[in-house]
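User: Second chain of the day. Same drill as before.
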Amino acid sequence: MQAPNSTLIPHGLVEIEGNTVISANGDRHEVDVIIWGTGFEVSHPPIGRRVQNAQGQRLSELWQSSSPEAFLGTSIQHLPNAFLVLGPNILAYDSFIGIAEAQLDYIVSGLLQMKAKGLKRIEIKPDVLKYHNAKVQTHVQKTVFNRGGCQSYYLDQNGRNFAAWPWSLAELKRRLQRLDLEHYQVA
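Assistant: Same format as last time:
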């Protein structure tokens, strides 16, 4: 945040028009990247009430009827060119800072590939997302968060574990080293 090419906008954003964001106080800012700091709310992230997918559906509405899902806690279906940090099923047993840094490596890798290849749009493939989340849910059933009747905030209103990463931290960081464009629809 202290880099000369970054600016903190300490107001909520009310609208985005192309590369312009409009803050709650009416100021307009030309931007290249938006990083939303929305606080820490595990089960119902506030950003879900503010972000709409390509079909105009708010993430919070989708996540009420079906549990939150993302690819590597980072990419959401029908949300092109957008990435989450500390999204669904990314919580491993480490500092959130370490996980967020690994996710940022993944995101920057994707952005650099987009720039190098002249891509305007990337979006996680639905079959990749579906396979990933089915595998996550199968393996998370073996964790302490899902066994023995444990009730924790890792389980959502549907009883589905939307928070925990079921494998090792080393595996998570390995998978976040580089974004694989094969997992994405590109244009």
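The mean pLDDT is 89.

User: Great, on to the next one.
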